[in-house]
Amino acid sequence: MISVEIEKVKSFELVCKNIASDKSISHRSAIFSLLSDQPSIIKNYLKAEDTLNTLKIVQKLGAEVKWDDDILTITPSGTLKEADDVLDCGNSGTAIRLFCGLLSSIDGYFVLTGDQYLRKRPMKRVVQPLVSIGASIDGRKEGSFAPLSIRGQKLQSFDYTSNISSAQVKSALILAALKADGRCSFSEPQLSRDHTERMLQGMGAKLEVGDKIFISPLTKPLKPLQISVPTDPSSAFFFAVAAAIVKDARVEIKNVSLNKTRIEGYRVLQSMGADIEYIEKENTYEPIGDIIVRYNGKLQGVKVDKNISWLIDELPALSIAMAVAQGESVVQNAAELRVKESDRITTVVNGLKACGVSVEEFEDGYKIVGSWLNPATINSYGDHRVAMSFCIAGLLCGMRVEDVECINTSFPNFFEILGSITTPRFC
User: Fold this and answer.
1) Is the pTM of this model over 0.85?
2) Is 313 a catalytic residue?
């Protein structure tokens, strides 16, 4: 197990041109390419463990994958074939849940699994909705945990109302609907991240998006993707928090997605007092541009209980900003945190307590009394976002973070960028 020690800094200025490409869009680019019968061209595809595992699955399903520098070409076979091996999603909940939706309506038998952490994560949240519309899926503890076995078959049309807002659940149901025998609909309590709808519409799928999403089944293959994957705003957010909490710091993040469902964490940080500027430059599949974050003095406590599905990945890093803000900060309606790579509510609370912060844990969130962070040794529990959040905390006070190999699953050059601010010491 690799640990890292981070030294505090006085200030810094950073222009980020090489933040990891967006993981969500990279996964979807690979998976959605299978819905066409022509080559998809994907620039800046994320070369991280999770997304490369997704590419391996795409190959096992019959597609040809070729690289030319940072340009990826995926040529589907035209008809998805039954894989002759287990499909390993690594650490990616996005991959396993989206493949569940896609493969549930494809003729064949498929087995999806992942690493030791993914096999502990709950799958019933996607399996149950799919089974309710006729999919044949089973797994450990009645489909609650991977490995999952799928017997693909033609699904009937459905009208599904989800009781949670989850982009993964929504995407799985939409993918299943594309091969159903009639028009389907899906609704959720609140709009979750909408990359799936945007990208599939751009490929020619007939989706009517409003309070409900109506999905017409495919009558022919979709158009291939021609996409440049933007910088991941969730990955970039760690350095946004760093600029907001370190005196006189400034970060400029280049070519990042400005999708409103992806920058809610920045909006919250802005409401706490950070100086944040958004500069849109293009808008095809996604609005893309630059974000500039400047230190603007002491942050103020904030209550976060709305649009949770838009900032669920940013909450661990946001908790670091809350820990040094004036007053109380409260996070509620975020029970989704408990089913991530770790139970992020407990993991974050334990980490902050180790740093001397006053924290109260709720079933669906926590309350943080802002003060200061003390140096500590933090167990990441194999959760990349927790590990990176406390590395950023180290810029203020110094920190030792254990089990940091997990960062490679989503942000392989995190320490390279962090190294331009301070010098990480691995041990």
Assistant:
1) no
2) yes
Residue among 232, 290, 313, 383 flagged as catalytic? 313
Q: Give the angle subtended at the CA of 199 by the CAs of 131 and 289, to the nearest 5°.
A: 135
CATH code matching the domain that covers 23-213, chosen among 3.90.550.10, 3.65.10.10, 3.30.1360.120, 3.30.280.10: 3.65.10.10
Cis, peptide link before residue 147, omega less than 30° from 0? yes
Instruction: Give strand ranges (E) for 192-333.
Output: 207-209, 213-215, 226-228, 250-257, 275-283, 287-294, 303-304, 328-331
In tens, the pLDDT along 181-197 reads 999 999 999 999 999 99
Q: Where in the chain is the domain with CATH 3.65.10.10?
A: 3-21+231-426, 23-213
pLDDT band of residue 1 (cuts 50, 70, 90) is confident
Determine which helix (DSSP H) or strand (DSSP E) holds 161, and give its type and residue range.
strand 159-161
Query: What does the alpha-carbon distance between residue 280 and residue 381 come to, in Å, rounded to a whole number?
Result: 37
Q: How far apart are CA 94 and CA 154, in angstroms?
A: 23
Q: Which amino acid is at 97?
A: R
